[in-house]
Batch of 3 targets.
Target 1
Amino acid sequence: MQYNEILFQIDQGIATITLNRPDIRNAITGADMIAEVEKACKLVNEDFGIKALILTGADPAFSSGGNIKDMAAKKGMFSGTPAGIMENYRKNIQRIPLALHAVEVPTIAAVNGHAIGAGCDLALMCDMRIASQKAQFGETFLNVGLIPGDGGAYFLPRAVGMAMACELTFTGDVIDADRAYEIGLVNYVVEHKQLMTKTYGLASKIASKPPEALRMAKRLLYMGQNAVLPHLLEQSAAFQALCHSTEDHQEALAAMFAKGKPVFTGK
């Protein structure tokens, strides 16, 4: 697939999606942008050589979320009757949280600038977040008379807890990277020029792990958010039995006994 709205790269088992519409501050409500992000996520799942995914934006913004000009003009997905707009959300931007949430490898948002509205939620759709000191975050929907229409009400409380999610949503405040770190919204804050170095460093550390066990570990963590303990333990036992039978598990044990570094093959 040819990409016009994003850049998609794979390097040493790490895939990177870069939202590449700085002219509209990487707004994510355009049909082409949505389709390209969705397709890239699908390719990540299909390629077992990929072990981590980074999501970032072309400077100066991570993502401004919805295209405000289209909203004002009632164009694109913001056009039509209320019933039609509801269907537009389902068939357009809501495909992004479903696609990112379904990515089977660990995902990291490298937040290089403003992450506002749906852009903030986009960062939250990733498993981890690293913020540039230039980053700002805002769950700003109520400021323009809207609610989080893209899954923010699902992702935000899971990242920062219900009380803080309520404050951010109800006030519409925009917070800087340091405050985002204080409330647990991001894992790290770094100088802007160090953002991708830090992000690739974390992605590389993750990508060095056994790929089959890595995908199962991610799946298990998310199952644990909604499962009762007996069901999660049953699933854990099943996944663990699969891991015990892999060559990578034996390689890890052999390397440990030999005081060497394991080489994992995904078998």
Target 2
Amino acid sequence: MARKSTNFLIALRFLLSRKRAMLMSLAGIVFGVTFFIVTQAQTSGFEQFFIRTMLGVNGALRVEDRIQQTMRSMEAERGTGFAISMDDSVEYIEGVEHPDELESAVARFREVVSVAQVLRGSAEIKGNFREMFCKPYGINLEQFLGVSDLDEQILYGDLDRFRNNPQGLLVGIKLAQRLQLEVGDPVLLEAAGSNERFRVSGIYETGIEQVDKERVFLHMPAARTLLKKPFGVSYLQVNLLDHERAPEVAERIERVVMHGSMSWQEREKTWLQVFRALRVSSAITVSSIILISGLGMFNTLVMIVMEKTKEIAILRSMGYQQRDVRRIFLWQGFTVLSLGVVLGCILAAGATYAISRLPIRIRGIFSTDSFVVHWSWTHYVAAALIATVIVMVASYFPARRAARLEPGDIIRGTSG
């Protein structure tokens, strides 16, 4: 224990002999760790926000498009099952012909929290002497609130107005702006050769531009009349206890109920790959700062070895072993590393909080008016591990060189 304490004190003294160089290396580690954590917090923050937005709009998974096969028992995990007759082909048939039975089967999976039937179509919406294309979505409101964040997305009006009006309509903010619609305005929907009058009960914003400029919500009976579809629905939207398990649950549901089932990971695969690439790219880029600091540490320790050859010779003459000399130089790297990681983590926490308060307006794949960050201990651990590997590797080689110096060679001037 005494030898270890002495080694540390000697290492500290060697460090202080080149304060400026070590401070530069320390600053590099601090800022490298800080930037790594901050960039990871930002990229993963926007990714998590995007995922929450998509789940709040389209649910964890969808069950749609019947798979034609022979008679198959559709057994759920709770209680008895039921069966429906299907044809012999293996083609996908668009839509859900027996929504009530399918909903009952899907709801019995223990991972499923709620299920909602959705009837989708195409129409023209006319209001204020303007007309635009739209996509009517027929819903049962109480069901749909269990699989979406529609109640949190209402900007103007309210859901009670929609709930109490069979001809009520919920319009996306982009569509409302283009038609100059306000709550209470009458509109006309034309689809499948029929015209139906509705009244705007609310205006919502999901932050997804494509949704906000096309999608309108109406009650299921009104949608059936408008689209002339007296039975069946387009798909079932499903909410799960754990949305991360959506691919596994989707596969099991598809195998049991013989309807195509798509998880949110599959549906948003392209965007998830983009976010993943950004996160990895930023990690690699910012890690270069720590790498440069490690090279600086390497150069500084090499210079200390060259400057302290006499001191090393004295230590070896006093009985210090090669491993003791090696530890002295490793202690120098570890000391700078520890200070850099601790200060970097503290600075990163403050910077992350400050960035989360910065205003920024983003509309497109999601909606936010400030930077979104994701607080995770894994970012701090990853930054510390990267810094540790780089700095300790950079410290090892000068330490090994110092340990190999022999007192006799130093005295004769033949070391190095």
Target 3
Amino acid sequence: MERVNAWNNYDPGMLRSCMDLSDDYKDFLDNGKTERECVDWFVNEAEKNGYIELSEAIKEGKRLSAGDRVYSVWMNKSMVLFEIGSDPFENGLNILGAHIDSPRLDIKQNPMYEDSDIAFLDTHYYGGIKKYQYVTIPLAIHGVIVKKSGETVILRVGEDEDDPVFFVSDLLIHLSQEQLKKPGSAVVDGEALDLIIGSRPLTFDTNGKTEKGDKENGKEAVKKAVLRILYDNYGISEKDFESAELEIVPAGRSRDAGFDRSMILGYGQDDRACAYPSFRAQIETHDLKRTSCTLLVDKEEIGSVGATGMKSRFFENALAEVMNLCGQYSELALRRTLANSCMLSSDVSAAYDPSYGSAFEKKNTSFLGKGMTFHKYTGSRGKLSSNDANAEYIAYLRGIFEKENICTQTAEVGKVDMGGGGTIAFIMALYGMNVIDCGVPVLSMHSPWEATSKADLYETYRGYKAFLREASYTNF
């Protein structure tokens, strides 16, 4: 069961393709640090590649046929793309599904306060993080503020060279004797992850007037100074935070890692390391028999909940609309289409880390550089909340990837009693379709800066293209 290192398979042409894909991927990571930014990026690229918006096709009463390409965006945070195949929908779809949300800090709805002449924004962490990893690193603010008028203000501060950055403070080592006695989960309390955003007060003269002549009370002068900047630069007030979605993410660009530049270090690679090759495979695969579909969804890191998570019906509704425009919709046809579909639940795997080898069962783990990783099951402690793929489906997929000489490996998340994780696979399996988890191995998963192998990204991209082109497995 020794797995081949993918780098050993590359001729000069494949090596160039691998590096080019990685460069494009880094650009995507840098421009898609939130789910809204990812959707914007995907829409722009999709339209360049001949995709039209589903809602426009519906308004125009457009009839769809083989080769047509449509996409649908839901609440600016989730997206689904289809390329219509020549086979009837009831034969099933070939589906790639990835999530585009990542662990981070979120700004609360009543966030701003001042303490000891320092202005803060109060936060709530999103998804599974080690809280101590978010202190003393440069942070950026990304997101939207929607005013009562309906105007949307886009914030993206901390990424440009001349932008300010923000940070969460930590206790100095000289006074940390009590702090360091705590377990890692309690070293930094969640309510202590407050973002420092300013320390300079409004200036007052001897008559209690500000520089601009407004009558002001000297109380919370630093907070008022920051609010003045926000109003002058963006036209927003403190009350506007109530209708805002602001995410705090690591500031800075993704980078090549290692003297050999074999790896990528960047924020949000769980699960954008799978979302990006899924999208590329979708837009680059043409003349299909079975309709291809790529799902790019929100909220996986908090249970796939809400209107933009995989547990909502937005995918099913979009599929019904597409089938209707193809003249193939009925409730029974929709159910058969879903049941006969094949899916790769495109999510990352925990790469083996020899520095923490005791957490892994080495025979059943993924390794950097050894290709796309398959998980027959995920879940935790007895496969709880897992999809467990059928052996027949796995054997079918093995044939596809071996035919294309794509490097693959199989894995579990870690040792049986160590923990585990979940994906969107079990949700899609509710339709009765065949689903298996597969994707890119990641080092330091859920940390501010995650690491992946360029070879694994490339093999996953190649695998997804082969799947969309070749898969025709059905349950009936």
